[in-house]
Design brief:
The chain is mainly alpha-helical. Helix content is 76%, strand content 4%. The two termini are 55 Å apart.
Length: 756
């Protein structure tokens, strides 16, 4: 600890020294930085000043160039206007010459076209008359017959037959569907009868197989009951043996306790000292009694108690096994009979498997039967619908309708062939569409001639109007050209003006360059005159000074940071050492006290567990516990049950039947009420001291709604006295009555807990 404090003090002294040097180092670094900046600025100004003086001749040439550009800017627009008027006059003269040649060509083309309006009118009338042939051709296409022994022309009769034909064909199709439905119905009815016979056979086999399975189940239960009864006999013999062993061990323990009672206070000889208080009665010990001699009673008692505990555990296991076997035997409910268990199980499994197969086949046949019944019913409905409104047999009516349809088709073929012959003659063998296309092509050719003649006539008129306008424009442009030529007198020649002309952007750029040069020169002169006197130091020397000053300052700052971190670590270690030393002193004092007390209390505790004093205290506490639990059980059971203590066991007194019986005869819900009464009574007893919380885990699901309401009311009225009462339950009605609920939800990644 002293070395740590010395190291901390040394670090503090070094940090204080560096703190005093830091302002001087910072000042030296700032001065070196300012000197370097001033030297760099002077060097830059000298370079700029020399550059500007070298550019002076160039700037003078720029001024001269700008003056010539101003003169060219006045002359060049006038020269451009003159050239534009001259070009416009030449363009007009060329257009006039071109249009005169075009007019002569148009007149020649119209003469060669030779269009006749009367020929166009005659072609249009012939095309209009031929349009009626389309309707007759469409009528023939509905028949499509070209040859017949007796062709006949009657378009109206042919249209009537075509209207009648679909009706007659529909009647034939309906009669065919009726005949097909009657045939399908007869087939389905035969299949339905076969399925009904098969279903009856499977049902009889299933009944016989069910009787066989029932007989095997009864035989198997009887064999299982016989095996359980033999196991119970063996367990009962083992139980009788353990009961005798228990009685023997209890007798030896009773004799051992009597020997310990006779030994009395001599067992505390090691704890007595002359002149000191007795640890049991508090009186001063004047003289020590003789040291006890004899057997190791405590070791023998421990061995007997362990043997008795092992016997009791085995008894409990056997009693539970006997109870389970008795319940299983009672659940079978048959007279035990010897039998081959494995053989009966195998026969039973085979019979059940066969029965399941018959059930599956039965269900399959039932499904097929229902499906077939639906099909027969639908076919009967369809056959009745198709027969509706008809008299006679379907086959005879179908033959009559088919004969009428054949006669109609023969008449339709004769009329179609006659109509085809007429169309061939009217169209000169071309066909209606080809004949109409030929007439339309003739009309179209004449119409195109008419359009071209009209177009040529319009172009001649437009050309004449354009020529007149161009001749007037030529005279006006000649006068304007003479005026422009007069305005050019005394100006700079055109070629020279183009050479010296500058665009507005170029002129503005040159002006800006001159202005920037003059402005920069003035600025450099002003800043040069404003520079303060500087020592004769080079830039390299100034940079070296600045680097040394900054390096010294950086080293000092880094060392200060390291010292600060080191001092913080040393302070934390010193504080931790002080706390550890203080805890060590406290623990050493407590250890000395515990060592003095442990022998006395350890032996006293063992002795008090080995005599009758704990049994006496336990009896008093158990009596108080039973009295409180009795009152709680009476409340929870609605005044029916009272709780009684009998030795180390508990009994209930049923006020409805006025009978005393063991608590194990209670039902599941009643057992929960008794357990809850004892738990609440025990918690009240312990809460007077150290118990800070009470948890009740499940059991509420076995209660009926009325009992659950009573239990919930008792729990709400419990005097907690600062305790926490927690209830673990899945019963939602009980959970909703609690003031604070912590809900646990299952999740694949782990349970989740939330307050609700």
């Amino acid at each position: 600890m002293e070395a740590l404090e010395s190291e901390l003090e040394k670090a503090q002294r070094e940090a204080e020294a560096l703190g005093k040097q830091k302002p001087r180092l910072e000042r030296e670094a700032e001065e070196a930085k300012a000197l370097l900046q001033a030297l760099e600025e002077r060097q830059a100004l000298e370079a700029r000043r020399a550059r500007l003086e070298a550019e002076a001749p160039t700037m003078e040439a720029l001024r001269e160039r700008l003056a010539r550009a101003e003169e060219a800017a006045r002359a060049l627009p006038l020269w451009r206007a003159y050239r534009e008027k001259e070009a416009a006059l030449r363009d007009t003269e060329g257009k006039i010459q071109e249009l005169e040649g075009k007019l002569a060509g148009l007149e020649e083309r119209r003469k060669a076209l030779a269009f006749d309006p009367e020929a166009l009118r005659g072609a249009r009338e012939a095309l209009l008359e031929a349009q009626g042939l389309r309707a007759l051709e469409a009528l023939w296409r509905r028949v499509g017959v070209r040859e017949h022994p007796k062709p006949r022309l009657d378009p109206k009769a042919l249209e009537a037959l075509l209207e009648k034909e679909p009706l007659l064909e529909g009647e034939v199709r309906a009669l065919e569907a009726w005949a097909e439905a009657r045939r399908a119905l007869r087939e389905e009815e035969a299949a339905l009868a076969g399925l009904e016979d098969e279903l009856g056979r499977v049902e009889a086999l299933g009944k016989a197989k069910r009787e066989e399975v029932s007989a095997l189940e009864e035989a198997l239960k009887a064999a299982e009951a016989h095996a359980l009864r033999e196991e119970l006999v063996a367990l009962q013999g083992e139980l009788d043996r353990l009961l005798k062993e228990k009685a023997r061990l209890e007798g030896e323990l009773a004799e051992l306790k009597e020997a310990e009672r006779r030994q009395g206070l001599l067992a505390y000889h090691d704890l007595l000292e002359p002149g000191e208080p007795c640890p049991l009665c508090g009186g001063v010990v004047h003289a020590l009694p003789p040291r006890p001699e004899g057997l190791d009673l405590a070791g023998r008692r421990k061995a007997l108690e362990e043997a008795l505990s092992e016997v009791l555990r085995e008894l409990g296991r056997l009693e539970q096994a006997v109870s389970e076997k008795e319940k299983a035997l009672e659940a079978l409910g048959v007279e035990p009979k010897p039998g081959d268990l494995e053989g009966l199980k195998e026969a039973h499994a085979q019979a059940k498997e066969a029965l399941e197969g018959l059930r599956g086949r039965y269900q399959e046949l039932r499904g097929e039967l229902r499906s077939k019944e639906v099909a027969v019913r639908e076919l009967r409905q369809e056959e009745a619908r198709l027969r509706q409104g008809r008299e006679g047999e379907a086959e005879a009516l179908l033959a009559e309708a088919q004969a009428a349809l054949a006669a109609l088709k023969e008449e339709k073929a004769a009329l179609g062939a006659g109509l085809y012959r007429y169309l061939q003659e009217a169209t000169r063998g071309l066909g209606v569409e080809a004949f109409l296309r030929a007439l339309a092509a003739e009309v179209k050719a004449l119409e195109e001639k008419e359009g071209k003649d009209r177009e040529l006539s319009q172009k001649v008129e437009e050309t004449l109007r354009t020529l007149s306008a161009l001749r007037a424009r030529k005279e006006e442009q000649g006068r304007a050209l003479a005026e422009a030529e007069a305005s050019l007198q005394g100006l700079m020649p055109e070629e020279e003006a183009r050479q010296f002309y500058l665009s507005p952007e170029e002129e503005a750029a040159l002006q800006t360059r001159l202005q920037d040069h003059e402005k920069e020169l003035a600025e450099v002169e002003a800043r040069w005159n404003a520079l303060p006197p500087l020592p004769e130091v080079s830039l390299e020397e100034a940079r070296a000074r600045l680097g040394k000053a900054q390096e010294a300052l950086s080293r000092a700052q880094e060392r200060l940071r390291e010292l600060g971190e080191r001092m913080a670590v040393l302070r934390d270690r010193a504080e931790a050492l002080r706390e550890s030393l203080q805890r060590r002193r406290e623990l050493e004092g407590r250890l000395a006290q515990v060592v003095r007390e442990v022998d006395l209390w350890d032996k006293l505790a063992r002795d008090l567990q080995e005599n009758h004093f704990p049994d006496y205290l336990l009896g008093l506490k158990q009596q108080s516990l039973v009295e409180r639990a009795d009152a709680l059980l009476a409340t929870l059971s609605g005044g029916r049950y009272r709780l009684l203590g009998k030795g180390g066991e508990y009994e209930v007194y049923d006020l409805w039947t006025e009978a005393r019986r063991p608590v194990k005869t209670l039902s599941g819900g009643e057992s929960f009420l008794a357990s809850l009464s004892l738990a609440l009574a025990l918690s009240e007893e312990l809460s007077r001291g150290r118990l800070g919380a009470l948890f009740l885990d499940e059991g509420f699901g076995t209660l009926d709604p009325e009992t659950l309401e009573v239990v919930a009311g008792v729990l709400e009225s419990l005097p907690t006295r600062g305790r926490l009462v927690g209830i673990v339950t899945h019963v939602e009605a009980l959970a909703e009555r609690l003031p604070a609920r912590l809900r646990v939800r299952k999740h694949p990644s782990g349970s989740r807990v939330e307050w609700v």
